[in-house]
Amino acid sequence: MASLDELYYQLLRQAVANKEKIVPEKVDPRMIACLAQPDDAPLIWRVKPCVCTTDSKEPCAAAAACDWDAIQMDPEKGMIIDDAKCVGCQACVDACKLDALKTKKDIIPVVQELHDYDGPIYALIAPAFSGQFGDDVTVGKLRTALKKLGFTGMIEVAVFADILTLKEALEFDKNINSETDFQLTSCCCPMWIAMIKKLYHQLLPNVPGSVSPMIAGGRTVKALHPNAKTVFIGPCLAKKAERKEPDLVGAIDYAITYQELRDLFSVTNIDLNKMEEDNVPHASTAGIRYAFAGGVAAAVTRTVEKLDPHRKITVQTRKADGVPGCKAMINDILAGKRDGNFFEGMGCVGGCVGGPRAIIKKEDGKKHVQAYSDTSEFETPMENPYVIGMLKELGFSTVEEFLTKSHLYDRKLD
Predict the structure, then answer these.
(1) CA–CA separation, 112 vs 45, rounded Å?
(2) pLDDT digits 0-9 by tens, 124-174
(3) 158-175 vs 385-393: helix crossing angle, rounded to 10
(4) DSSP track, 40-85
């Protein structure tokens, strides 16, 4: 019987060739459904029988790795994953000693859309992309390659990080007026927001009601191009869950990972290093640096300073990355040991460059992102003309007007 990985590559090649699916005999039909129609599939797939039980001599490593109480052990069935509690951190997949768990893949229906859909399809790529597809693969070459695959265009999600930086900076300027006030970033990390919503609900009043840059990007594209489809590309499995949250549905049609995009390139004749440059500068240094831990805090700090250089209460940041580190920081806040007034949390160690579906090591990813961010002509969102140009297309003359009169990037966190 073909393994899931073998079946995946076979179906992916057939999708690229736009051929009717021909699958090997004796293949579990559930495997085919998970790959061909993954929207109804869970984030984590169990592809082998689980031998871990409540009677096992050793505790289940996958269950022990879960910080979300999403895995329970059944005496007969072994591991059972609660999809409602799973946030997509992938810790269980990495910990499973039997290699019995696999992550959700959405690339095959994306390829089918590129063949069949007669409207525009935009790729929205997360800021951590630098270096993921090779040291010499620039943003311009990647944009050309994505267009060659059939995408209408590629937009850097970092530009929406720019706008949300301004939103958070204005929220800070409005709300932090005493030494006892503090704000938790709504930022880009779905695991951070899930942690606050599920475990620390009492802190939600201190989180601005903002969507993530991914959702902001999808909503903006659809506001400007109502018949467009949007495909997010990033290092994060949790984004696949975020796009399906009830109040966010519709902004992003598909979320795929850097690894899935790499798989697609591997079964085509596209040589990324030989692609022509198609450079369209989008984001500021600050927005691009959302990709690594500390980037959000630094962006908001610098933007608040530019908004009001003489502000009496300055931004005092504290940041944490990795689920245990984030929990420790939040517990300090609740215990009154804040040591700051602006708190950034990233679910993955290192931030998005350390995402579970990144291709390169987080240390290398950070170096590439820093190098790319240094090439930006704009230090902060305040100087970024692309932001102003995009907002004018939406009917607003300034960022302040957009953020006060539009609810496109708002979210009710409860």
Answers:
(1) 22
(2) 999 999 999 999 999 999 999 999 999 999 999 999 999 999 999 999 999
(3) 90
(4) GS-SEEE-S-----TT-SS--HHHHH-SSS-EEEETTTEEEE-TTT
Distance of CA 146 to CAs 17, 22, 271, 278, Å? Answer: 16, 27, 12, 11
**pLDDT, tens digit, 9 for 90 and up, residues 341-372:** 999 999 999 999 999 999 999 999 999 999 99
* Amino acid occupying residue 328: A
How far is CA 33 from each of CA 7, 42, 102, 108, 378, rounded to the nearest angstrom?
11, 12, 14, 11, 46
Encoded tokens for 120: 């525009």
| 26 dihedral zone (left: phi>0; alpha: psi -120 to 50; beta) | left
pTM over 0.85: yes
Cα dihedral 165/169/174/175 (nearest 10) = 90
Is the separation of the CB atoms in 235 and 257 below 8 Å?
A: yes
Copy the structure tokens of residue 401. Answer: 């007007």
In this structure, what token pair is assigned to residue 108? Answer: 């095959």
Q: What is the token pair recorded at 163?
A: 């706008």
